Amino acid sequence: MRRLFPVVASMMVLAACSKTPGYVISEGKMAEIMADLHTGEAVVDANSSTFRKDSVKQAFMQSICMRHGVTTQQLDTSLYWYGQNIQEYIKVYDKTISILESRIAEAEKAGGKSNDRPRSISLDGDSVNLWHGPASLRNSSNNPSEFLTFTFNTDKNWERGDRYTVSVTPINPRSAVFMTIVATYNDGTAEYVTLNEGSEGKKSLTLVLDSAKAAITVYGTIHYAPKPGEVSYLDSISVVRTRGRNDNAAARRGQQTTRMR
What we know:
alpha+beta
């Protein structure tokens, strides 16, 4: 998927448990919510010259939560739990994509064509910034948590061994920045890396694709939760793809692998 609303987010750290607690939104319902959020974002992006994006996206989120009978607090809590259980998150992510693809197929069967197909924004070049979100983000207690997400699907510009680096520079932070990157492969496996680090200064996280496998998707998130009364910034946000170098084996050390199916 192109980019699953700033809510698909935050979802990937080491798997901890497999049973969903009662206070967490169920796997199927979460997938439906995430699909609706992605559709809402597509509408806002398509009308960016008309809408004030931030306020409209917030309105979309609130209305979607009401439709599904959950609160935004329940959604945030559930997102946090899925963020600590990557195997459960991957199940939700796969279901979300299936729901969206099914909706596209139904729309086309009815005679309409949808522009909401999964698409890549990958660009040519040995080093290119793929990030298409805001370059800077203001954090405050009025906006208790922020999830920024990205998703890139395989295309002609991908090469085995490519590396993806997420970078952000916190200014006046009082919390840690959480970042994660996941790559899925055609053999049903996924690799991921995470970073959870506080203090000012540039934070970077890199995932190097396996040169022996064909990658399908690279996706990830940046998450920051400000303290009460805090005003801080996430600056110089970027997701840069570079071509693999001959130090790939060393660079891949520490990447975690899990099986999706």
